[in-house]
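Exercise 3.2. Students should predict the tertiary structure of the chain below and write it as C-alpha cells, then compare their answer with the key that follows.

Predict this chain's 3D structure.
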Amino acid sequence: MRKNTLSKRNYVLETVFWAVIAFIWYNNLFFTNISGKTVLESNVILIAMIAFAVLANSIFTLRWRRNTASAVTAVLTPFGVYSYITYEKYMPKAYKVIVLVGIAVCAIAALCIVLSKIQTKTKKRRLVTKAKMTYLTVRFVGAVVSVSFITCLFCRTYVGGALLSAGESATSTYGDEYTIAENMDTVLLLQEDEWKKLSLEERLDVLQCICNIEGNYLGLNRKIHIYASKLDEHVMGYYNDSASSIQISVELLESGDPYETLDTVCHEMFHAAQHRYVEIYERLDDSSKNSYFLYNASVYAEEFQNYKSGRKSSDVSEFLDYYGQWCEHDARSYAQDAVVDYYKRIAEYLGQSEEAGNE
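Answer key:
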C-alpha cells in the first residue's frame, strides 16, 4: 500500500533519527562487545549494520511507504542481529525457536508472493513489485524477531535479574553435607584444566555448591543464590543482601579463570556473613554492644549504612574510599585464605589418591 506521508528528504532524516535514538538506547541498556572484539570494534560493527539497514531501506522504499512506521521498522533488525551475536549463548533455546519461527514465516510469505498474480504492464515491473513485497516482508519479520530477542533479553536481565542462573539448589539448612570433604567431586572441578571443560551453566552450578559450603562454614541462616550478569566494567561481583543473592560478572565466568572466580565468590559470601553478623549485633542492647569482641560488627554496621561502592566511579579517591573500608579489607583477606584452603585440600586429596593407587 502506497502511504507517503513524508518527503524523501524527511523520510531519510527520520530513519537516521530513529537509528540514532535506538543506538543510544541499546548502548545504555544492553550493549556488550562481541567476543574477541574490543568495545570500539564492536560499536563500529553495530554502526555499520545500522548504516546498511538505513541504506537498503532508502533504496527499496524511498518511492513508497515513506512514513514513520516504515522508518522505525527499518532500524530494528540490526539490533536484533547484534543481540543474537552477543547473547545467543546465554539463551540458546529461546533464540533458536524465535529464529526458526521467523525463517518459517519468511519462507511461507515468499512462496505466497512468488505464486501471487500481480497485474502489471510488464514482466520487469511485476518482478520489481514482488521484490519490494519480499523486502517489506523480510523487514517486518526481522523487526518482529528483533523485538522478540530484545524482549527476551530484557526479561532475563531486568525482570529475571540475571543472564544465567544456577541449576544447583541453594540451601538454608546447612549441615555436615555442605563441607569441602563431602563435595570433593565438585570441588575438584575448580582445577584449571577441569574448569575449562565446563559450560557456563556447569560452572555456575559448581559456584552454587561453593556458596552452600561457605554458607555452612560462615554460619549463615539463609539461602544465598548465585547468578551471572552483565556488570559494570572492572566489577567482578557483588552481594545483594535484600535479595540474598550474589551477582558475578558473566565475563569473569567466561574467562576460564577458576582462581579469580572462586576468590570473588568467597569474597561476596563473606559479605553475606558480615550482614548476618550485623543483624545479630543490632539485636543486642547497648551494654552488650560495647563488648571488645563485637567491635568489627559495629564497624561493619556503620560502613553498611554509608557504604561506598565505587562500582561506577572513575575517581581514584572514591575508589580508595571503597577499597579502604574495613568490610572490604576483611572480605579480601577471607577470600584469599579461602582460595588457598580450597586448592590445598584439592592437592591433598589428589596426593592421597595417587598414594592409594600406588599401593
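Discussion points: The longest strand covers residues 225-229. Residues 164-358 form one domain.
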